[in-house]
């Protein structure tokens, strides 16, 4: 049984740590690989990324597998959440062995952040090592194949996309080959997920099943969005983050290619993307359970195409799962609040 989420890739687990109230509106999300890790890669397209350990994922470098990936709020401050994940992994003896003692390991934990500073009202309310530890412990406590919580949770807690509330979304697909490809996305973009002329979600246009809101509903939504935009600080520093995973047996170079083509999914569902003030980053994880067809030199193509598709679908789900937020840091309506009753 599948749950249409990242956890459909066997062995992957997802945990969120969410902080709200008393000046907080932020959090951290951890994707925990099976013990022994997964082949990982990354592709950064935004002009203002906040990342950690991405150089280790270059196919030319020595690290082959990672145990976890961290997505976090708090801008560059929030990257401290990865320290809590590293500490937990070290306690489990999970990481790169660096001596004869099995306890001597160095976990490589790639991380990327979104900008959500002060969205809850307090500029200093941001994730730290304790938040990262809470998120990885939440991931470790889940059963295999657990449905991923979506919306305003974890790294998506304080996310916004244009004038709308953003959040976390996930999706998966089972290919005819038996390979699973899935994505988890944190949508926090300076661009928009909706067509300003019609109110339809860009990602649904690419899926060929867009439902166009009635003109009166769209006009009402436009008025609400204009009011919110006038009151809120402009979303100058934003990022869309994704983890694309598969059970295919990929090399690091193939995984990096998947990370790159998966950015097409962001471009389908968010416009504009990859700006100088975005930090758009896609990580990939490949667990290696299913080999590609050795007799088909282009077997990777179906995985590449699916990666972009599931990213776009995950962005749509994030937009639809988000809930409106109003507080000292600003007010952001949600897509469903504006268009859900059409």
Please provide a written account of the structure.
The chain is an alpha+beta fold. The chain has helices at 81-91, 129-140, 202-207, 215-231, 252-269, 300-321, 335-339; strands spanning 13-21, 24-32, 38-44, 51-52, 65-66, 68-72, 96-97, 105-106, 111-113, 160-161, 164-165, 167-174, 180-188, 239-248, 281-290, 325-327, 330-332. The chain has a six-stranded mixed sheet. A five-stranded mixed sheet has the order 1-2-6-9-4, covered by helices on one side. Strands 7-8 form a two-stranded antiparallel ribbon. It starts with 12 loop residues before the first strand and ends with a helix.
How far is it from the N-terminal to the C-terminal residue, by CA?
32 Å
Q: How many whole angstroms does the radius of gyration measure? A: 19 Å
**How many extended strands?**
17
Low-confidence stretches: none
The residue-averaged pLDDT reads: 94
Largest sheet: 6 strands, mixed
- The oligomeric state is single chain
Give the overall silhouette: globular
SS element count, helices: 7
Strand arrangement, largest sheet? Answer: 5-3-15-14-13-12
Helical residue percent? 25-40%
Structural class: alpha+beta
The SSE string, one letter per element, is EEEEEEHEEEHEEEEHHEHEHEEH
Name the beta content range: 25-35%
